[in-house]
Structures are given as C-alpha cells and as structure tokens.
Design a protein that fits this description.
Length: 423
C-alpha cells in the first residue's frame, strides 16, 4: 500500500466507468457503469490504481473512459471508442503472414489429428458438403479433397492468406472440389447449407481470441439440420502443480544474485511475471500434484454465443504427492465424433501426457507457493469471464481452498486470483 501511495501524483485524473466491474479480490475495486473514479497511478497498460468514493484499489483500464459520455469525450477518447473491439485488423493481419501458419503446420499432433479425422471418416464424407471455417493455408480442405470425396469444400478465410490458399488448391489439383472464399465467415454467402462444419478455432486456454464465436454463428446459419461439427466437443482441464524452475527463475532469483540481496524487487517480479498466465508452459507429468480434472465441457452443438460471457467450472483435487503448490496448469482436449458406423472418435489432447502441441499448456502462478502434503485436498472454482469490451480477451479467476489432511492442524487456507488474458 505504501509503495503505491509513494508513486501517486498530486493530481489524480478523473475517469468514468464505461461498464460495470466486479473486483475479484480486496485489491480490486468494484464499480458500476457511469461511476466516477479518480486514477492515481497508471500502474500498467491493463490495471490502474484508482479511487472510488474514498476506497482505493485496482481497476481494469479497459473499463474506464475520460468523460462521462461519448459527447464529453476528448478526441483521443473518441478515437479509442471507435477502435474495433475485435481488433480484426491486427488479428487477421497476423494470419496474413506465414509465421503463425508455419507454427501451426509444424505442429504435427494438431495437424495430423485433423488428417486422421478425415481419413477415418473418408467413406462417410463421400458426396458431403463441407465448410472449413478459417482455412488458413487450406490444409484441412486439402485433406478432405485428397483423402475423401466430398462434393464440395467451402474453404473460408478472412485474412489475405486466402489469395495464396487459392494457388495452393490449384497447385495440388483440388480446384474441382475446394472453393476458397475470402471474407469473414460472418459475412460470406454460400449457395447451400453444409453437412459438416470443420474448424481449428482453439486458442490458449481453449477460448482465448474467441474465434469460437464465429464458428457458432456459422453453425446456426449454415449447418444443416443433423449436420456434424468438428470438433464436436471440447474440455478444459486443470491441475494444481509445482513450477520449481519457473519460480526459481523469476522469483527466487532475487534472493541472492551475485551474493546481493535484491528481494525488494520481488513485488515487482510478482507483478511482472505472475499477474498474467504464462503461455507456452510445458508441464512435466511429475509436476502435477494431483490427477488432472476436467473443469469445463463445451458441447459444440448446443453451446450458444451468450454462454461464452461467463463459463464456470468446479474442481476437487486430492494431493497425491507432497511439494510446493505454485499454481494451476490448464490445457484442453477436443473430440471429433465419427460420421457413421465406421471409424472411432478422434481426440486432440494438448495435455502433458500427450505429444506436445504448439499451444503447450498455460500456467497460472499463485502469488506465493503453498506447501501441500499427500492427502490434502484443493477444491474451488475457475471462472472464464469474457472482456465486455475487448471481445477476444478474457479474465480467468481461480478460487481455491486447501484442506490439510492432518487432523491436528485443522488447517484451511483459501485464496483467489484473477488473471487477465490480456485485457
Ligand atoms: N485451418 C488452418 C488455420 C487455422 S488458424 C489450419 O488448420 O492450419 C485459424 C484461421 O481462421 C486463421 O487463418 C484466421 O485468419 C481464420 N479466421 C478466424 N476467424 C475467422 C472468421 N470469422 N472468418 C474467416 N476466417 C477466420
């Protein structure tokens, strides 16, 4: 608290809440749309140290605007309010270059899972109408055309990659079957409904970037009654874990670098390295403190766009080995149901027991490690809350309660932490 006050300047800036926000811990403010807040320190681009009716706490910068109404807003604010909440220019811009496509295509587990789905359903795909939503380089469409005999594959891609995809389709002799349509799936028109809607829409922690919304909208508009979704379902899995080397590298490091005491930097380290989740974490099966648990399950046939606003899951873990509980690791699995009698369901599992994928896993670090013992239980919930303004972002809030198995200590610790991804 003192440190924050030291940084405060003498003249806080006045802001207004553009929407309501519920703080998830005592460090965060809770406010309603239209509330007047005084911003003392713009601590980071995402979180500001602010004051509401005499109470101080952090407020998410994306929820605040200068001026009570758009009319009262400065020119800069008006520009910001015109900014696309989907950030499509940046998003599709990045898919117009090769970097991401190279990363995805180099991910064999991912790509071969889709190839396997097509292969094991090749007989049932005969004469079917397929939509490949977000076809990128067209890889899934090309698998369909080469390994099965669909009547047509509509390969939809919004980024400028689509121009190359057309060439790739031709180069591989698939232009009779694959039709590349450049545009957002939300805007394109098809001449008919489709039997199968296939897409590789998953992001970090399953939902990040929320491409899944485009898939649901396309499903409701273009999938024929009784048509098939690939993937057909998705699950998010969580496990309490130790992360000794990450903790040592980012936090314990400050204890004695070159024999000096740099521990005053630890609060900064916590803010800088542990506030947001760590993407691209590869957890060793040995670092799992318990058996992983599926916390969220999505049925791609019944899931609705509005369900994406808030998704909550519960967990109950039994600690199977003593160690330091540094945080939670998350990953996802998607399943592809088979079209007919032939072929079994295919699964793409991005967890530590499977071949690593380019998503790897996502690590959520607690502020400080907790020592746990075999037989302790860790129960709680995870809430994925979509950012009300920035539609590709979300906040993951974890609540946990640790019950010690040792009778004499009647030890019960609770904790909660919210992780913005990214706004
Ligand atoms: N199917 C490809 C690419 C997957 S990445 C493969 O498996 O390698 C997701 C792709 O979907 C990106 O190329 C992105 O530009 C595209 N995309 C995302 N949302 C879209 C939308 N609403 N309409 C059309 N394309 C979209």
């Amino acid at each position: 608290m003192e440190e924050k006050e030291d940084e405060e300047d003498s003249s806080p800036e006045e802001y207004f809440a553009r929407c309501s926000f519920t703080g998830s811990d005592s460090d965060q403010l809770t406010f309603s749309s239209g509330d007047r807040l005084l911003v003392h320190v713009k601590t980071s681009s995402d979180w500001w140290w602010a004051e509401l009716r005499g109470v101080k706490g952090y407020a998410p910068a994306s929820h605040l605007r200068q001026g009570a109404t758009i009319e009262g807003a400065t020119e800069e604010e008006e520009d910001a309010s015109l900014e696309d909440p989907w950030q499509d220019e940046e998003y599709f811009g990045s898919y117009g270059t090769l970097r991401l496509h190279l990363e995805m295509l180099s991910d064999k587990s991912r790509t071969e899972a889709y190839q396997q789905v097509v292969l094991s359903n090749s007989a049932s795909l005969r004469s079917k109408v397929v939509m490949d939503l977000g076809c990128g380089t067209g890889i899934i469409s090309l698998f369909c055309a080469q390994l099965a005999q669909p009547s047509v594959v509509y390969a939809v891609e919004a980024s400028s990659m689509a121009e190359y995809t057309r060439q790739l389709v031709k180069q591989n002799g698939c232009e009779e079957v694959v039709t590349v349509l450049q545009g957002r799936a939300e805007d394109i028109e098809l001449p008919e409904q489709v039997d199968i809607l296939v897409s590789e829409w998953m992001g970090n922690c399953l939902l990040f970037e929320f491409m899944v919304e485009s898939v649901l909208l396309a499903r409701d508009r273009w999938l024929r009654e009784g048509g098939v979704m690939w993937p057909s379902s998705a699950a998010l899995t969580l496990v309490p874990c130790q992360a000794n080397s990450y903790f040592a590298e980012k936090m314990a490091f400050w204890e004695q670098p070159y024999g000096l005491d740099f521990t005053p930097l630890q609060p900064l380290a916590q803010q800088e390295f542990f506030t947001k989740p760590k993407f691209s974490h590869l957890i060793e099966p040995d670092d799992c403190l318990s058996t992983p648990c599926d916390v969220i399950f999505l049925d791609m046939y019944t899931l609705k766009v509005k369900d994406l606003e808030e998704i909550e899951g519960q967990f109950q873990f039994c600690v199977k080995k003593s160690g330091f509980f540094h945080g939670f690791t998350a990953w996802f699995t998607v399943s592809f149901e088979s079209l007919g009698e032939e072929g079994a369901a295919v699964e793409l599992n991005t967890g530590p027991e499977s071949e690593p994928t380019h998503w790897k896993q996502t690590l959520f670090m607690l502020d400080r490690p907790v020592s746990v013992h075999t037989g302790d239980s860790i129960s709680g919930s995870v809430l994925l809350r979509r950012n009300p303004i920035w539609r590709r972002h979300m906040t993951v809030t974890l609540h946990w309660k640790i019950n010690s198995s040792k009778q004499e200590t009647d030890n019960c610790q609770v904790g909660t932490k919210s992780f913005p991804m990214w706004r």
